[in-house]
Amino acid sequence: MTVDACAELVQRGDPDRFRAVMAAPVEVRAQLFPLYAFNLEVARAPWVTQEPLIAEMRLQWWRDVVSSAASGAARAHEVAGPLHDLIRDFGLPVDALDRLIAARRWDIACDQHEGQDGLASYLEDTGAGLMWLAARALGAPDAAEAPVRAYGWAAAAARYLLAVPELAARGRHPLPQGLGTRDLAEMGLAKLAQARAARRDVPKAVAPALLAGWQAEAILKQSLTGGTLSQLSEFSRRGLLLWQSLTGRF
């Protein structure tokens, strides 16, 4: 039940967020690694089994973890334990944690999202919610919620666009009827502009929580070209992360 164990999980399963945390000051890593490890465990729960009932049970287990942590009953688990400490010590909003878990039920099914609003809600509860939780763990005030969530939504849209081919290959319907990748990219860029318009409401101390979105703008803009979307080059990734970590701007 250590932060190191959470860091190892993130390094193996979510290397981009691992890089983002390692670019952050050492003193905030203990807040970010357990949260990202929790997100990883929840995100992959629907994919580790072909039995929908078992996947539902895994997600319900995490919902119970969050609920019990809020009441002070920690779980002896390498991620659940540190997550409990975060909830207790930093007052993380339990409802946001629960919505993040519940949203992953879509990954169990093979149904389309319920229109554009359905996909927007999915990205709001997963990516935007996660970034807000990370910001809260670093002391973000209520006034920062709107821009942080908007930036988290844009970052989630970028990651989702990269995942579209794999989701389709696995028999999912990643985009609702009538919504193309270009449409989603434009929505993400609009959210990014919204976040930047209210950037003054986000304290500098919260900047490490936003590092996870360092590739968002480049990926969203690449999606507008209509060509094959791919991961950014290693040089570009390093440069963008370095710039954001040094400037604190997003």
Descriptive account of the structure:
It is a single chain. The protein contains twelve helices and no strands. The protein has 250 residues and is mostly helical. The chain has two domains: 1-109, no CATH class; 110-226, no CATH class.
Highlighted features:
12 helices, globular, mainly alpha, single chain, 0% strand
Summarize the structure.
This protein is an all-alpha fold and 250 residues long.
Task: Kindly provide the radius of gyration, computed on alpha-carbon positions and rounded to a whole number of angstroms.
Answer: 17 Å
Q: What is the N-to-C succession of helices and strands? A: HHHHHHHHHHHH
What best-fitting shape do the alpha-carbon axes yield?
globular
By secondary-structure content and strand pairing, the structural class works out as mainly alpha
* Domains (count): 2
For the termini, the CA-CA separation is 33 Å
What oligomeric assembly is this protein in? single chain
Residues in helices, as a percent range:
55-70%
What fraction of residues sit in β-strands?
Answer: under 5%
Number of helices: 12
Mean of residue pLDDT values? 93
The counted number of beta strands is 0
| Poorly predicted runs of 5 or more residues | none
Question: Mind summarizing the main beta sheet?
Answer: none
